[in-house]
UniProtKB/TrEMBL annotation:
Alphabetized InterPro entries for the sequence: AB_hydrolase_4_sf, AB_hydrolase_fold
Source domain of life: Bacteria
Keyword Hydrolase part of the UniProt annotation: yes
Disulfide bond found in the keyword field: no
The protein's name in its UniProt record: Alpha/beta hydrolase
Family, as annotated: Belongs to the AB hydrolase superfamily. AB hydrolase 4 family.
Keywords: Hydrolase
GO molecular function, one term: short-chain carboxylesterase activity
Length: 76
């Protein structure tokens, strides 16, 4: 997207939420990173799965905090 992004403060961003708040969310029509995350989260669909499903995650994934692992919902 040459010329469509203001990259002035890119080097000042220190984490993914800051990046997503500044670039990802606005580019996709969301007001904030939190709004983007809520819309994109797959956890909201777990309760509707009706066939046995294997979910694979690494507990030491550096990109995902523990809150990203819906163990209770997935076990139901």
């Amino acid at each position: 997207l040459p010329g469509q992004l203001d990259l002035t403060d890119l080097e000042a961003l220190r984490d993914f939420p800051q990046f997503d708040d500044r670039y990802t969310a606005p580019l996709h029509g969301f007001a904030s990173a939190d709004a983007y995350y809520e819309h994109a989260a797959s956890g909201q669909y777990l309760a509707d799965i009706r066939v046995p499903t294997l979910l694979v995650n690494a507990l030491n994934d550096p990109f995902l905090p523990p809150s990203c692992y819906p163990r209770t919902t997935a076990a139901a």
